[in-house]
Design a protein that fits this description.
InterPro entries: DegV, DegV_C, DegV_domain_contain. With 278 residues, this protein is α/β, with parallel strands linked by helices. Helix content is 42%, strand content 27%. It folds into two domains: 114 residues, Dihydroxyacetone kinase, domain 1 (Rossmann fold, 3-Layer(aba) Sandwich); 124 residues, Hypothetical Protein Tm841, Chain: A,domain 3, CATH 3.30.1180.
Length: 278
Amino acid sequence: MKSIAWITDSTAMIDKDFAAENHIYIVPLRLIVNNEAYKENVEITSEQFYEKMRQHESVSSSQPPIGEFMELYESLKGKYDDIIVIHCSSELSGTYHTSLQAAEITETEVIGIDSRVGAFPLREMVMQGIKWQQQGDTALEIKAKIDMIIENMDFYLIPASLSQLHRSGRVSGTQLVISQLLRIHLLLRFVEGKIIVEDKIRTFKKAKFKLMDILKRDINVVKSVCIMHANNIEEAFQMEKEISLFAPFLKIEIAPFIPVVGVHAGEGTMALAWIRQK
């Protein structure tokens, strides 16, 4: 079995111990609060971040600096047979392209994968990739299989704060005003790496029911689903109960969102993601 290093970022939600045991190198995105930058999940916890976000309106995020990637690639030279680079969607962050640029500058040969997503599906791509590696697949065979995961994943979000989306540039001022006046909740979806508005729905409850209906369409080709929340565990437990009523056989995981989601969608945001099995 050839040795493989995995390069990803903090949006992948990968446990640090698992990463250390499986040659996964996680480069953290930056959270910027009141003009002070923190390495996501390294220099600030989710709880600390949300507390600061409540106190300051100036909250944003940024990709890791190219120098951090360059240092990493230099340190990995000659240690592995292959290096697989897989990051959050290039449509939402410059992290993937910055990582590849750093590899080119340091003359490090890598196999690049744009996950077109983040969070649970990105984590599953890496974890499944490691299983395939242990079964003897080559790096290129693993990439081909991960590409199939990308084609068969679904990821939906119900953002808690349109104001936060407006500040981060995801929602226009007109959309914000209309949505607030009509008390509309957006149901968002990842499509080809971009986040689009799937539907505009009155009340959070109706938006959640719509999301459940979408999951039901795929229920015969889904083995597990992940409920993600931005510091909203009570609603996550409620969604788990509701899904269990119509799909008691489904494996349900509840996971906290990485803080960068709170930056753009607001504290309280809920999401559901799954991968169709072919």
